[in-house]
Amino acid sequence: MYSTRGLIAALALSAMSVAFLWLTDIPLGVPDEWTWERISTSDAGPELALGAAQAAIAGVVYILIAWLGSRRIANCSRLELVGWLLGIVSVGFGWLLAVQEAPPSGWRLSKTAFVLYYPGSSGYFHKARYDIPDTAEFLRGYEDLMAEGDVLHVGTHPPGLFLLYRAMIGQLERRPALAEFIVSTATESITEAFGIVDANLRRTGKELTTADRAVIWLATLLTQACCVLALVPIFLLMRRSQSRETSWRVAAFWPLLPALAIFIPKSDVLFVLPAALLTWAWLCAARRQSFLLGAVAGAIGWAGLFCSLAFLPIGLIALVASQFDTIKLSDDQAADKQPLKAVLRRLMTPVLLWKPLLGGVAAVAGLTLIVFQLCEMNLLNVWIHNYHNHAGFYAQFERTVWKWWLVNPLELIFAAGVPVIFLLIRSAKRDLATWRTALQYPLLVSFLSVWTLLWLSGKNSGEAARLWCPLLPVLLAVAAGGLVNPVVSSDESGAESTDEESINERRWLVLLSCQAIVGAATVIRVSGFHF
Which of 28, 41, 105, 120 has a Cα at 20 to 30 A from 382? Predict the structure, then answer.
């Protein structure tokens, strides 16, 4: 594991990041183009203290479960492992609720009512509620709608999210008792926000119905559930190359990433689960040379693309990682005594992946054809329109690309938290230096390559902390190498090994606690939305 000096450096940098947010007014972004807003805390003394205490209690409970799980995870049965994963997911869900309720009033979970209802922040609920009386007709005309060239929420996305909201609205309008129950579970802050939205609507002759409230709150819960459930495929993704204990310890950082709590209920957070599932399923398909798993990965990727083009870089990361992984396995199998065989297997890598590739292509093509036949909608044209509309955003809203080249990596640091970035840098430094033996090398190189291309392309000039949320599962997975225990030599005594493991455990707990503090401090201070 990392040295005491490295741990102290990570703690010092974490403290500096918190001080930057709380003690300075330096803009979070590029002024006159895009900045994240700091939440005012000057008049929120007792309220702020109560919120911080609430987050602290939730953080202690979460870290306690993570620690207890780390003690059992290495040798427990598969059934117990499932129990521990469900347990940490549950307390992670509670942590996200608590930390979102920690900021001053007006900036808590109340944000979800404003974000999801008003079209300026999202637009999916609003269009599904008022502009889609007939779903079949909506899909038939979707290509024409995209051709209109809207560069905001509607024109840059395929129809998946609109259909999701339309389905929830229809189901809850037909089940008023269920809608009443869902609304009764809402927090006080979001109930108050519903009242504000309803009061504004009544001035225009409309009202926020019980079904409307239920859909918005259910969408929030669904987004948060998908967010925290991503911990499971992240754990499985790391298990391909790391021990159970290391995978558990790194996966425990997941719910503590600040960007997740800040940007709930935006769809970018909803996408982290299918993004993690896609990466894991495809790498498993490639390693096992499985047509069926390739088709499963293709179906997951298609479902993601049915909602957002954000899954293109995720799919590219998975594909490139599988290429490197196959080459590495080929080299290991060929051995040093057969260099010609190793070279030939390198050249044949695309051929070796023909089964999962065929399965993935079959799934994507088949589902696209089904949509074309049933809905009279050409998804290929929709995706092309989405791409051009997204590019049109920067034609209407000027961005200085070189400034965002400087700002975006800093946004990523604040979005993930300094402790996680510390693990990522340590993992990259070690694995790139020992690439022939590094188990995490294929995914690391793939992630860094695709992220660098995305960063330098200028496609995310502004709001990168939110737009890059689907990349965070892979980021955390490749950071696992930064937490790997040092190899214990065979002549070390059992007592020395135990002492080393005890030290490593304490360092991990310190770093995990630091991540929780950084996460809470960031969520309480920074808003992901402009109201």
Answer: 120
The first and second tokens of residue 144, run together, are 């024409």
Give the number of other CB atoms < 10 A from CB of residue 390.
Answer: 16
Residues 6+ apart with CB under 8 A from 368: 302, 379, 380
Tokens of 346: 């390198």
Following DSSP, what letter does each residue of 372-416 receive, concatenated? HHHH---HHHHHHHHHHHHHHHHHHS---HHHHHHHHHHHHHHHH
CB 518 within 8 A of CB 14: yes
Peptide bond into 419 cis (omega under 30): no
Q: pLDDT 10s per residue in the chain (531 long)? A: 567 888 899 999 999 999 999 999 999 999 989 999 999 887 777 888 999 999 999 999 999 999 999 999 988 999 999 999 999 999 999 999 999 999 998 899 999 999 999 988 888 999 999 999 899 999 999 999 999 988 887 888 999 999 999 999 999 999 999 999 999 999 999 999 999 999 999 999 899 999 999 999 999 999 999 999 999 999 999 998 888 999 999 999 999 999 999 999 999 999 999 999 999 999 999 989 999 999 999 999 999 999 999 999 999 999 999 988 776 655 555 444 455 555 455 555 566 788 999 999 999 999 999 999 999 999 999 999 999 998 888 888 888 999 999 999 999 999 999 999 999 998 888 877 766 555 567 888 899 999 999 999 888 888 899 999 999 999 999 998 877 754 443 444 455 567 777 888 899 999 999 999 999 999 999 999 886
Q: Helices 418-433 and 441-457: crossing angle, nearest 10°?
A: 120
- Distance (Å, whole) CA 270 – CA 261: 12
Q: The dihedral of CA 116, 121, 122, 125: what is its sign?
A: positive
One-character DSSP codes across 297-347: HHHHHHHHHTT-TTHHHHHHHHHHHHHHHHHHHHHHHH-TT-HHHHHHHHH
pTM reported for the whole predicted model = 0.92
Nearest to 254, CA basis, from 109, 426, 88: 88
Instruction: Tell me the backbone φ, ψ of residue 91, rounded to 5 degrees.
Output: -70, -25
User: Which run of H or E residues covers position 38?
Assistant: strand 34-38
Report the alpha-carbon distance of residue 497 to residue 489 in Å, rounded. 9
Spell out the residues 6+ positions from residue 313 whose beta carbon is closer than 8 angstroms to its own.
450, 451, 454, 471
Q: From the CB of residue 133, how many other CB atoms can be counted at a distance below 10 Å?
A: 8
Contact yes or no for 295/451 (Cβ under 8 A): no
